[in-house]
Design a protein that fits this description.
Length: about 750
């Protein structure tokens, strides 16, 4: 044997490639968010997951790597276990590789290191038990990447993952170098990363199958032995608009699989693990903070999104622009917490609960309860409600509600593990929302209220423990870059098969007339001064001017504590209509009570003056236009559904109820009070088009206040947040916004 033969035979690297061929790795990512409706998931199953499996099973020479997110996997196991049994048979046959990941699909950069490792390892164990196969690879949720993830992923016993070629381009790599896989490192730990092809993402399944074959042929001739990775959503195959007809009824998928089978001599469908076993790494790389290209654009401020779109449009026919395009990077995923303060609220609450859990674990609390709480926390970390792009995300109320439901459930379990008595109350102070200022948390066995004295003395979180519901899981109406498309009208007919990034379809008529934007957060206990003759329609339209500086001004705060009650007392010296005055407001919570008592004292009012004052409350997660969800008064009964605009006067009792969720909110006033009510609705984007979404309802008590002889005025509001029995049948979700991500 010659020396050359000896080296070749024992080399860890593959033999030289003699015949031109190419590997293609299909990495299918199937996912449904925590909190999505059962009927939506069932439809996705019937339209995407099941028919894809039906077709794939027939082509015995083909392989793929399959990732199914934990929320969807749990649903499939409970509702269609026969589907998982069929997948398990394909795993045993060596045709399907199971890809893991964090259990409930969090953005890994958003959660603590302990939860990253915990989510990944717990899901790997579940998958290994169910499919009797090792899990060595993982799907990176939304391909959101920061380099320090490497060490945590490796610590969770994951060997490889898939990002986008866009990540590598941002690191300065040429696209011709991205047809293999690379090693990366952090703290001495290694991880293999495959670059997924953006070109394939736009070819499959929207272009004729032959174009994918042509792309692979060119690649095999230019770079024999190259690895091309298609990593994308399985919902593209049937659930995305019009794809069911295109992919299945018109036979696109069969044609694609047929061509791959026909050309299998030079197109090798491979799993990611196959590639690692038969190929050497192309090199080593350190990648910048990044996600897929569209996500980085959505993370930008609106005006910058529009500027970037203009630049790309201006230079799209410039040959030199193709060379420069890879250096055009978008925004940073974490800035969704800036674009959407609601995202920061969820994130901050998640971090609070994670910290509580970690502390309880360190104190060796009941291990069974700790695991129950951890399961709830992990569900509250599901990424879909924390951002927004082509999907509803943060604008979908049922997804936001689900996040808070699981976080509140986790907190309840931790309180039980900590041995709380049946009735208790406390007031705590910390920078709970990471804004550099301290907030106040009033909590008892029934509810908790999160108050920000430095920003108007507002209540920005209001948790009901029993229904596990945050009444302030609200969202503001904000400008979005795609609103320019809304103003321009529809551009895609229903029978067009196009990527969701290119469609402009209205799910309701007249959306361009519904575009309206808020200038401040839609939370509660917001103090307004108005013109004395202002009308409700001016309040609703936003035409009413703010005549005071109390709505978002800084209130001084002190905490008062007794054994059975706590109070935050806030005060601010400001002005309304240029008149100096002082407002003091107290929020009181008693042990065992489901009522917040809110008292106002206004001082320094000029004699014989009249000021129009209101305090704004927002209530989220209680839909409009539905049976069993309505406004009421003791003497006038049902006043209409929760989307009604009401202008009521001289009331001392007023309420709103959601009998399906078992929530009743009652205002008990100590003086005659006028009430405005109206809904907040957003024009937002989902994969099916643009839609109007009911977000929350405003209840705004208001008074024309006149001072007593001492120049003061007072009012006390007792806000009872009772849990009631379910009195109506499960409602239809026909008009609810839905999502399949």
């Amino acid at each position: 044997m010659s020396q050359d033969e000896f080296v070749h035979e024992n080399s860890p690297f593959p033999a030289p490639i003699m015949n031109p061929f190419v590997r293609i790795c299909f990495v299918i990512h199937n996912h449904q968010p925590v909190g999505n409706f059962d009927f939506v998931i069932e439809q996705a199953y019937q339209d995407s997951y099941l028919p894809f499996l039906d077709v794939f099973e027939e082509y015995e020479h083909l392989k793929l790597s399959l990732h199914t997110s934990g929320p969807l996997m749990n649903w499939l196991d409970a509702n269609h276990s026969e589907y998982l049994d069929r997948v398990a048979d394909l795993v045993a046959a060596g045709r399907v590789e199971i890809i893991g990941g964090p259990y409930y699909e969090p953005i890994l950069t958003m959660i603590p290191s302990r939860d990253r490792i915990g989510q990944i390892t717990s899901y790997s164990k579940w998958l290994e038990d169910r499919f009797n196969t090792p899990v060595n690879g993982m799907w990176m949720p939304e391909r959101v990447w920061e380099q320090n993830l490497t060490s945590d992923i490796a610590a969770a016993d994951i060997k490889y993952t898939v990002l986008d070629d866009y990540h590598f381009a941002n690191a300065g790599m040429d696209k011709d170098s991205l047809n293999g896989f690379y090693l990366t490192e952090d703290e001495g730990r290694l991880l293999t990363i495959f670059p997924g092809s953006e070109k394939l993402r736009y070819l499959i399944p929207f272009r004729p199958a032959a174009e994918t074959i042509d792309f692979l042929r060119d690649l095999s001739e230019d770079q024999p032995g190259a690895i091309a990775v298609f990593g994308d959503d399985g919902e593209k195959f049937g659930t995305w608009p019009n794809t069911k007809v295109h992919v299945y009824e018109k036979g696109w998928l069969r044609e694609m699989f047929g061509l791959l089978t026909e050309h299998r001599q030079w197109i090798h469908t491979s799993t990611l693990s196959d590639c690692i076993e038969t190929n050497a790494p192309a090199g080593k790389i350190y990648l910048p903070d990044c996600s897929y290209r569209e996500m980085t654009e959505w993370a930008l401020p609106v005006e910058k999104q529009l500027q970037l779109a203009d630049v790309k449009h201006h230079f799209e026919n410039d040959e030199e622009f193709e060379k420069a395009k890879q250096f055009l990077s978008g925004g940073f995923w974490r800035n969704f917490k800036i674009r959407y303060p609601e995202t920061n609220d969820m994130y901050a609450r998640m971090m609070y609960v994670s910290s509580l859990l970690s502390q309880a674990e360190q104190e060796n609390r009941d291990s069974e309860l700790i695991e129950q709480a951890r399961h709830q926390l992990y569900q509250g970390q599901c990424n879909c409600a924390y951002w927004h792009g082509a999907f509803g995300g943060v604008y979908l109320p049922h997804l936001r509600n689900a996040i808070f439901k699981h976080l509140i459930a986790a907190e309840n379990i931790i309180e039980k593990a900590n041995g709380r008595p049946d009735q208790w109350v406390e007031a705590t102070v910390d920078d709970y929302n990471f804004d550099g200022r301290r907030e106040v948390r009033l909590a008892n066995d029934q509810l908790s209220a999160w108050i920000t004295p430095a920003n108007g003395g507002q209540i920005y979180g209001w948790d009901l423990r029993s229904p596990e519901h945050n009444l302030l899981a609200t969202v503001n109406r904000k400008p979005e870059a795609y609103h320019e498309k809304v103003k321009g009208g529809e551009t895609a007919s229903d029978d067009e098969t196009a990527s969701i990034h290119d469609r402009v379809v209205f799910k309701q008529e007249g959306l361009e007339k519904k575009l309206q934007y808020d200038t401040a957060r839609r939370v509660s206990l917001i103090d307004h001064f108005h013109d004395n003759d202002v009308e409700l329609d001016q309040i609703v339209s936003g035409e009413s001017l703010e005549r005071g500086d109390f709505a978002s001004g800084n209130y001084d705060a002190v905490i008062r504590r007794k054994e059975d009650r706590v109070q935050v007392l806030m005060s601010r010296e400001g002005n309304a209509w240029g008149v100096p005055m002082k407002i003091t407001k107290g929020v009181t919570l008693e042990s065992g009570s489901d009522t917040l008592e809110i008292s106002y004292l206004v001082e320094g009012l000029p004699p014989e003056s009249t000021f129009h004052f209101s305090t704004e409350f927002n209530f989220a997660g209680m839909p409009s236009n539905a049976d069993g969800r309505f406004f009421y008064t003791d003497d006038r009964g049902n006043l209409g559904h929760l989307g009604e605009n009401l202008d009521l006067h001289e009331l001392q009792g007023f309420g709103l109820t959601d009998q399906w969720q078992g929530i009743d909110i009652g205002f008990d006033m100590n003086r005659p009070t006028s009430f405005w009510t109206f809904p907040i609705e957003t024009v937002s984007q989902s994969e099916a088009g643009f839609e109007l979404v009911h977000q929350n309802v405003i209840v705004q008590p208001h008074w024309w206040i006149q001072p007593n002889d001492a120049g003061t005025w007072t009012v006390t509001i007792k806000l009872k947040t009772a849990t009631i029995s379910n009195e109506v049948e499960t409602p239809s979700f026909e008009n609810e916004p839905s999502v399949s991500i």
